[in-house]
Amino acid sequence: MPRDDFVCAPTLRVRWAEVDMQKIVFNGHYLTYIDTAVAEYWRAIGLPYPEGYVDAYGADVYLRKATVEYLGSARYDDLLMVCARVSRLGRTSMTFAFEIYREQEAGVLVTAELVYVNADPKTMKAAPLPAPLRERITRFEKRPPHE
Fold it and tell me: Which domains does the chain carry?
């Protein structure tokens, strides 16, 4: 996906504790980077998590699926861009797409997809995504998410 299609792209620097014996970022840390981008996405649409979402809508989102594809490796002190967008809005779920780049390089290091399900926190049963959330996301994205 072209980097310009992503509306949220926080940067972070790889810390020493995140590299392994091979001197590259340990694979599990990429999910932490992605989680940081999700938090930034919520802030960018005006719903800082959890208070902006849980308190505003009386619902919560739960991770249902995570897919990560490793295409390259980041190293200590690299400055990374973690590009994020909502690529799909379902009735009760939303799919985030991610690409991670070294800041000044064109080649993607990691691609990922997270699927979250909106649910009632008391019953843990799926519930429709709130209409105001759909509107915020659609306004924020350069390309509207697939429905």
Answer: 3-140 (3.10.129.10)
- Spatial separation of the C-alpha atoms in residues 131 and 136, rounded to whole Å: 9
Is-contact 8 84, C-beta < 8 A? yes
Rounded Cα distance, 19 and 86, in Å: 29
Considering only residues 55 and 93, tell me which one the structure prediction assigns the higher pLDDT. Answer: 93
Question: Distance between CA atoms of 50 and 43, rounded to whole angstroms?
Answer: 10
Q: How far is the C-alpha of 93 from the C-alpha of 114, rounded, in Å?
A: 10
Q: What is the pTM of this model?
A: 0.93
Q: What is the pLDDT of residue 4?
A: 83
- Phi, psi (degrees; rounded to nearest 5) at 35: -60, -35
The number of beta carbons lying within 10 Å of the beta carbon of residue 76 is 14
Amino acid, res. 106: A
